[in-house]
Write a structure and sequence with these properties.
The structure holds 2 protein chains of 2 kinds. By secondary structure, chain A is mainly alpha-helical. Chain A contains 13 helices and 4 strands. In chain A, helix 2 runs antiparallel to helix 9, helix 4 crosses helix 9 and helix 11 packs antiparallel against helix 12. The C terminus of chain A is likely disordered. Chain B has one domain: Orthogonal Bundle (ABC transporter involved in vitamin B12 uptake, BtuC). The radius of gyration of chain B is 20 Å and the shape is globular. The chains are: A mainly alpha, B mainly alpha. At the A-B interface, helix 5, helix 10 and helix 12 of A face helix 4, helix 10 and helix 12 of B.
């Protein structure tokens, strides 16, 4: 097997993959997919949640910090974006999006502080504080909701270069652009020295520290960047998918969902975030369709949602036992077997679980 | 004077409510003590156990029969967990185990809902959630009978479990396994039956915790979130200490109520949702191993 190049350059296959994906996103999908259902119910939420999953991936898969508060940061980003568009005149949407990401990042640093002292399940509890605190804060202070009493606030239109993006396809394009830029950024960070530092801290923090990597800087940086991604994802989630803002949409269940995307998708891989998000999103849809078409509604909706839960749980256990590196690794293995091509990823975690030791 | 009495009432109410958290935390501690596994499914076990119990009661089984049938069910859950989850994952890292138990929690929640439905059920234990008259008359304190029962049950369980761990052969084996599973099994301690016993005990603890909470708030899905409330309790008390679970519960219960009553109104209330976690963070900063936990030593 040929070793990976030490100097990170883009291989030919990377460029080909990129071109293929972009053609798919900008030409093939708009040409073939005409129904709004696919955009509003599948493609748009998939891209938003993938972005959030990348955020979770950075802090958990790459830096090995067991965090469980992604939805809290998403809420922070969503409400920050709402308020920025509402209160700051002449601020372009992209600017508001970036700023709301930064605001979420500030929360990320604040709630990442405990990671300097604790790890594993202890850190999980500390990050749960962020989840509950942010949602409570938004709920209790009317200013964040612009003193709206109805509970559900409609988001503003996305205006880019003076044009309102209202149709699902236009929103999809906005999302593709944002997600592409941020994904490329994340990939480069993961490949470069930043990512190397994260992974060094993940694989053994004491060794990393003795080699001169500042734990303080690396961990807080990971939390900040992760929260930035979640914040942007939250804002997009609210503006393109939910089209309304309510703190309940960002509860602990969403945090768990994002956690599962990362675990099932594969810890420590960027494409794992996309695969995991697609799976978590599509699985209930598929199950519902089967329930409706095969059994013609003879099965109760409760049973279907309960089955969904059981299957999720079983899958997590099965993956933990047989393929702790998740679906991304599974995909790699299948590819390898099919094409007999070397495609082992350097980003894959060294230890079995990917996080902690 | 009445203000002071009110303060006492808040604290006592909080302390007793805290013992309910302790009951949930106790299940976590049992499994953590035996296998250094943080069992995220404990909340789901509480839900599963009490839902099965209520369901069996609705089928017309008498109280005692339903109780023991549920205990047997929890034994089965422990058996399957040991066989299908713990054994294949032996010698894996703690975090892997943690994620597997999250999966286990989902399975249990799903199974419980598939079997018994999602509607909120009432559970009547014959103990009212209202102030006890003679205490109210003699001291002027309003203390709920249910709270007092939960407190008594918790303390009885602590004593029972401590005795079990300290003086029985099973308990000795369990402590040996907790110390070094490999060494323990090499001298002939049956790892499998020890684990089975621990999970069954945790299941029984879950059932009792669920009965107490179910009597107060109804048997519903929200019980799962209780497990999350037990986390700060564990952080404060220490993950491996049974008395720690109680003390942690008491601290969380009392602080939560006092903060809610005296500071909450300035922030628009409902700070109960996050106050315990913030309290836990402060504890983490000063004493990461908890009040009664073993000192965390990491070797390179």
């Amino acid at each position: 097997m040929r070793a990976q190049p030490i100097f990170m350059t883009f291989k030919k296959s990377d460029v080909v993959n990129f071109v293929v994906l972009m053609t798919l996103a900008f030409i093939a999908i708009p040409m073939t997919v005409q129904t709004d259902y696919w955009y509003t119910s599948i493609l748009i939420p998939w891209l938003c949640l993938s972005l959030a999953a990348i955020g979770q991936q950075i802090v958990m898969g790459y830096t090995g910090q067991l965090a469980l508060g992604a939805a809290g940061f998403m809420a922070a980003g969503a409400f920050a974006c709402f308020n920025l568009v509402l209160r700051v005149p002449d601020l372009p949407f992209v600017g508001a999006l970036g700023l709301s990401g930064l605001i979420a990042a500030a929360f990320g640093i604040l709630f990442g502080l405990p990671s300097l002292r604790v790890r594993g399940i202890y850190l999980m509890v500390a990050t749960l504080a962020s989840q509950f605190f942010i949602i409570w804060m938004i709920d209790k202070f009317g200013w964040f909701k612009n003193y709206d009493t109805s509970g559900i606030i409609t988001t503003q239109d996305i205006v880019i270069f003076g044009k309102s993006m209202t149709t699902p396809m236009e929103m999809f394009f906005v999302l593709v652009v944002v997600v592409t830029v941020l994904t490329l950024l994340a990939m480069n960070m993961a490949r470069g020295s930043t990512g190397r530092r994260w992974m060094a801290v993940r694989d053994m923090d004491i060794a990393a520290e003795s080699m001169g990597i500042s734990l303080l800087r690396t961990k807080l940086q990971a939390f900040a960047i992760s929260a930035f991604y979640c914040g942007v994802a939250g804002a997009l989630f609210a503006f393109t998918y939910l089209k309304s803002l309510e703190p309940v949409a960002f509860d602990i269940k969403l945090s768990f969902k994002i956690l599962f995307m990362v675990i099932l998708g594969g810890l420590g891989t960027i494409n794992g975030a996309f695969i995991g998000a697609a799976f978590i999103l599509l699985f209930p849809v598929v199950l519902n369709t089967i329930g409706n078409n095969v059994f013609h509604g003879s099965i109760d909706a409760t049973i279907i949602s309960a089955t969904e839960q059981v299957v999720f749980g079983v899958l997590i256990i099965v993956f933990m036992i047989y393929e702790p590196l998740g679906m991304a690794k599974l995909w790699d293995s299948i590819k390898q077997r099919l094409f007999r091509k070397e495609s082992a990823s350097v980003d894959a975690p060294v230890n079995q679980a990917g996080v902690g030791k | 004077m009445t203000e002071f009495l009110f303060f006492i009432e808040v604290v006592v109410g909080g302390l007793l409510a805290g013992t309910m958290y302790s009951l949930v935390a106790l299940g976590f501690v049992l499994i953590y003590k035996a296998s250094s596994t943080f069992n995220f499914a404990q909340g789901a076990m509480v839900f599963f156990a009490v839902l099965a119990f209520v369901g069996l009661m609705e089928l017309g089984l008498p109280f005692v029969v339903a109780f023991f049938a549920t205990v047997f069910l929890m034994f089965l859950v422990g058996y399957c967990t040991e066989r299908l989850v713990l054994k294949p994952l032996m010698n894996q890292s703690e975090d892997t185990m943690l994620m597997a138990t999250i999966g286990l929690g989902f399975v249990l929640e799903g199974l419980a809902q598939a079997a018994w439905g999602v509607e909120v059920r009432r559970l009547d234990l014959g103990i009212g959630d209202f102030p006890i008259p003679w205490i109210a008359d003699s001291t002027g304190l309003f203390i709920s009978a249910l709270d007092l029962t939960a407190g008594t049950v918790s303390i009885a369980m602590i004593i029972g479990l401590s005795v079990l761990f300290k003086y029985t052969k099973m308990g000795l084996g369990l402590r040996a396994v907790a110390d070094d599973a490999g060494a323990a099994s090499s001298i002939g301690i049956p790892l499998k039956s020890i684990m089975l016993m621990v999970w069954t005990t945790a299941g029984i603890v879950a059932l009792i915790a669920g009965m107490m909470w179910g009597a107060r708030a109804g048997v519903q899905f929200a019980l799962v979130d209780l497990a999350l409330k037990a986390l700060p309790v564990l952080i404060i008390g220490g993950f491996s200490s049974i008395p720690g679970a109680i003390v942690g519960g008491l601290i969380i219960g009392a602080t939560e109520k006092v903060l809610e009553v005296y500071i909450g109104p300035y922030f628009g209330g409902a700070i109960e949702g996050w106050a315990p976690y913030v309290l836990a963070i402060f504890f983490l900063l000063y004493r990461p191993e908890g009040l009664f936990g073993e000192k965390i030593i990491r070797r390179v």
